[in-house]
Amino acid sequence: MTTPLLTATGITKDYGATPALRGVDVRVTEGEIVAVTGPSGCGKSTLLHCLSGILRADRGSVIFRDQDIGSWSEAARSRLRRTEFGVLFQFGQMVPELTAAENVGLPLLLAGSGRREARQAALDWLDRFGVADVADQMPGAMSGGQQQRCAVARAMVTRPRVLFADEPTGALDQLNGEQVMQAIVRTVREEGTSVVLVTHEAPVAAYADREIVLRDGAVDPTGLGVAAP
Amino acid sequence: MSTAHVLLGLLAGGPRHGYDLKRAHDERLPQAKPLAYGQVYATLGRLERDGFVEPSAHEQDGGPERTAYTLTHSGRDRLAQWLTEIEPPAPYVTSTLFAKVVVALLAADADRARDYLAAQRAAHMARLRELTAVKSAPGATVGDVVAADYAIGHLDADLRWLQTTLARVADLQKEVTA
Amino acid sequence: MRPATLFRLSTAGTRTDTLRTVLTGTSAALAGTVMLAAVTVAAVQGGEPLEQPDGTAWLAPGAEHYTSPLLREPGLRPGVIFGLLLLTLPVLALAGQCIRLGAPARDRRLAAIRLAGATPGQAVLIAVAETIVASILGSAAGLGIYLGLRRILHEPGPGGSLRLPTDVFPDPVPLVAALLAVPVLAGLIGLIMMRGVAVTPLGVIRRQRGRGPRPWPGLAIAVGILLFNVPVWLSDRMVLSGYVFGALMLAGAALVMVGVVVGTGWISYTAGWLLHRFGRGPVTLLAGRRMMADPWNGSRTLGALLGATVIGGAAMGYHALFVTQGRAEDRFSVLIGMPPDPEHAAFYVNATRLVLIAVGAGVAVSAAGMLVALAESVVSRRRTYAALTAAGTPGRTLAGTLLWQTLAPLVPALGLAVVSGLVLVRSLYHEVTVGGGTTETCTDPAADPDTCARTVQTDPVVTLPVPVPWEQLMLLCGGTVLTMLVVAGIGMLVLRGSTDLEEIRAV
Ligand SMILES: Nc1ncnc2c1ncn2[C@@H]1O[C@H](COP(=O)(O)OP(=O)(O)OP(=O)(O)O)[C@@H](O)[C@H]1O
Ligand SMILES: [Mg+2]
C-alpha cells in the first residue's frame, strides 16, 4: 500500500531575490505521516504552501492523484483545499465571531451543506477531539489548546486526503501540544489521511513515519539541517 | 540509579521473594533496563548484611531462591531518607556522546566528528519514534507513557545538543587541537 | 504628563496613523471653513425696516449691495446660518469618528504605552489628544482657506454690488468660537467614541455589551422631531428671535441625527441576527455573526454619512415645500388675474438646491471616511481572512461577506436617516396655503374712506398638499448606496491583498 498520493518534483520558489526553495522532491504515500524539519528560515512553510497549492512554485510540479495542481487556477486549487486537503496553522485560524461549532461547520457550509447537517457534523468532530463542551463558545473564550483542537476538527471535518500542518503545536505548552498531536495522529490513522507536518521540534517530528530535513531550501540527506562550516 | 533503594521500595508493601522482586521491578519501571536475577540476589545480600532487610521469619531455611525478604526498621528509615534526599543536579558532565565528539576531534578530524554526530542523530530520531509509538499505542498504560516521556525528554535534550554542537564543531576543533 | 509628552505620544505613529490624522484634519478644516462662513453671514448688518419719524419705513443700510436676497433680507440670514451650521454636523461627526478607526498599529502603541506605566485615563487622553491636535491644525487650515477664499471671491460688480459677503469680517468672539468649536466638539465626540474601549497593557479591547443594542435611540429621533416643531409652535404665541428659533431647530436636527447614528447599532445587530437566523449559506453566517459581534461598527463608520443624509432628507422636504409654494403662488396669481412671478419661487428652489449639492459633497467626504474605516477593518482582520483562504474559502464568499456586512446595516439605516430628515420638515408643513386674505374697499370710490359703505372682497384660497418627493428620495438613497458599493468594491481590493498567505505570518 505505497501508492504515491502526492508527488512533488523539483520545487523551486524565490521571494524576489531570496531563494526559499531550490529543487525539493517530496513523495507522500497514502496514509503516511511525513515530518518536514529543519532550522528556522530553511523553507519549511514555503514548501508546505507549495504542496497544498496555496502558493504556486516557480518551477517543478506538484502531482496529486495524477494531476499537476500547479497548473490549476486559483479557484480550482481553492476547491481542492476545501475538499481533499485540510490545513492547520500555528494559531489564529478560527473566525473570531463564530462559535466553535460554526467554525468547524464552515467548510461544510462552503461545500453546500445545510446548517443543521453542518452543525451535527461539527458536534461529532468536536466530540472526537474532546472539546464538545465548548461548541457554543467563541474562540476568544477558549484556551489555546481548545482552539487548536477546534482547528484540527475544522481541518478534518471534510475528511481530507491530506492534512497540511504548519507547527500545529507551536503555540501550546508541552502537555497540550502532546494531546493535540495524539488526537491528530489517532484520527488520521482511523481515517487513513496522509499528513505533511512542519515542525522544528524533534518530539513532534517523532510522531511521523518519516522525516525530511531541509537546509537552505533543499533536502539535506545527512538529516543534520546544519551547513558544514 | 540505586537498584538497592528501588528494592527497598518494592519491599515496603510486604515480604517478597527475589523472583517476585525482579518481576515487580520490570513491571513498575517499564522501558528501564531489566534486572538480572544475579543482581537481585547480590543486592539483597548486601542489604541483609547492612541490616536493612531480613529473611521472613517463617521461611528461614531453603536456598536464596526460596527465601522471602522483609523490610527491617532501619531499612524503612533508610528508604524514607532516600526519598527525601535531593539528587545533585548534573554534578559532573559525563556523557559518552560528549566524550566521543571530543575524542573524534583529537584522534581524527572535524569530518569524523560530524559523521558521528549525523549518525547519532539518526539513531536518536529512530528511538524517539519508537518511544512515541509506545506511548501512542492504544493499550498504553500511564506507566508506559510516563516512562516514555522521561526518555523522550532526554533524547530531545540530546538532539538539541547535537544540533548546536554540529554548528560548533569547527570552533571546538580549533580549541582542542590548539 | 507634560503637554510636550502628550503631544509627542499622540503624534507618534505609522502611515495609517498619518492617514487618519490627515482625514481628521481635513474634516476639521472643512467644518471650520463652513463655520467661519456662518459667522461671516452673522456679521452682516442691515436691511431691517427702520421706522422714520415721518412715518415712512426705510431699510437699514449695510446690506443693500448684495445681489442675493439671502444676504440682503434680515429675515433670511438666520436661515442661511442655520443651514451652514447644519452642514457642519456630519463633517464634525466624521472628525470624531476618525478616532475609532481601528488602526492595529495605534492599538498596539496605546497598549505599549500602558505597559510602560500610563494609566487608562492617560491612554485615552493620548488617543483623544491626537484628534484634538489634528482638529486644531485643521481649524487653522480652515482659517487659511477662509481667508484665501475671501480674497479670491471678492469680485465687486458694477456699483459695488457683491455676490458674497466678502466685505464684512466676523466679530472676534464668534470668530474664535468658530475656530475652537471644531477641536472641542471633535474631542468630545472622540471621548464618547472611546467609551467602551479599554486600553489594557495587553491590547486594546473594544468592550462588547452583554446584550445587543436596544432600539431606544428611536426615542431621540422622536424627541428631536418634536423639538424641531417647538419654535414654530411658540412663534405663533410669542415673539421669538431668529437665533433662538434657529438654535432650537438646530438642536432638534442634531438630536435626530444622533438618534439615527446611534440607532444604527440596533439596526446592525438586528439585521445581523436576522441574517444569522434565517440565512443559509456561509456568507450570511459570516456576515451576520460579524454584525452581531460588533454592531457599533456601523454607527462608527456610517455616522457622518447618515448625518449627511438626514440633512439631505430635510433639504428635500424644504425643496418640495418651496416648489409647492411656488406652484400655489402661480395658481393664485392666475386666479386674481396677475402675471406669475417666476423669480420668487425659483429663488428658494435654488437655495435648497445648493444645500443638496452640499449634501452630495458631504456624502462624498463621508464615503472617504467609510473607505478608510472599511480598509482598516479588513486589514485588522487579515489573519483570519488569510487563514480562511488557505482553508479553501473562495474569494467570492469573502467578498460577499464584506458586501453584506456593509450594505445590510446601511440600507435600513439610510432609509431611517432620509425619512427622519424628511419627517422633520413635513411635521412642520404638509400643505401650502396661499391667499384667503380679505380686502375692504369703499363701494363708491369717491366717498370718504372712513365712513363709506364697504364691500369685503375675499381673495381666493389655493391650498396644495406638499407631495412626498419620492423621486428625489430614491435618487439620494440610490446615489448613496451606489457610492457605498464603490467603497465596498475598493474594500474588496484591499481584501484581496489581505488574503495573501503572507498575512498568516503577521501576528
Ligand atoms: N514574503 C517573503 N518575502 C521575502 N522572503 C520571504 C518571504 N517569505 C519567506 N521568505 C524567506 O524565505 C525563506 C524560507 O521561509 P519559510 O517561512 O518557508 O521558512 P521556515 O522554514 O518556515 O521558517 P520558520 O521555522 O522560522 O517558520 C526565509 O529565508 C524567509 O526569509
Ligand atoms: Mg514557518
Automatic annotation (TrEMBL), chain A:
Positions in coiled-coil regions: none
Source species, domain of life: Bacteria
Residues of the ABC transporter domain: 6-228
Annotated GO MF terms: ATP binding; ATP hydrolysis activity; transmembrane transporter activity
SMART domains the UniProt entry points to: AAA
SUPFAM superfamilies from the UniProt entry: P-loop containing nucleoside triphosphate hydrolases (SSF52540)
GO CC annotation: plasma membrane
Pfam family name, one: ABC_tran
Stored InterPro entries: AAA+_ATPase, ABC_transporter-like_ATP-bd, ABC_transpr_LolD-like, MacB-like_ATP-bd, P-loop_NTPase
Keyword annotations of the record: ATP-binding, Nucleotide-binding, Transport
The protein's name: Putative ABC transport system ATP-binding protein
Organism (species): Actinoplanes xinjiangensis
Automatic annotation (TrEMBL), chain B:
Pfam families, A to Z: PadR, Vir_act_alpha_C
Domain Transcription regulator PadR N-terminal intervals: 7-80
Domain of life: Bacteria
Coiled-coil stretches noted in the UniProt entry, renumbered to this chain: none
Transmembrane segments annotated in the record for this chain: none
Domain Transcription regulator PadR C-terminal: start-end pairs: 105-168
InterPro entries given in the database record: Tscrpt_reg_PadR_C, Tscrpt_reg_PadR_N, WH-like_DNA-bd_sf, WH_DNA-bd_sf
Name of the protein: PadR family transcriptional regulator
Native source organism of the sequence: Actinoplanes xinjiangensis
Lineage: Bacteria, Bacillati, Actinomycetota, Actinomycetes, Micromonosporales
From TrEMBL, chain C:
A Gene Ontology cellular-component term: plasma membrane
The protein, known as: FtsX-like permease family protein
Alphabetized InterPro entries for the sequence: ABC3_permease_C
Location relative to the cell: Cell membrane
Major location (coarse): membrane
Domain spans labelled ABC3 transporter permease C-terminal: 86-195, 358-493
Membrane spanning stretches: 21-44, 80-103, 124-149, 173-194, 215-234, 240-267, 301-321, 354-375, 402-425, 473-495
Keywords assigned: Cell membrane, Membrane, Transmembrane, Transmembrane helix
Entry annotated with the keyword DNA damage: no
Membrane-related topology note: Multi-pass membrane protein
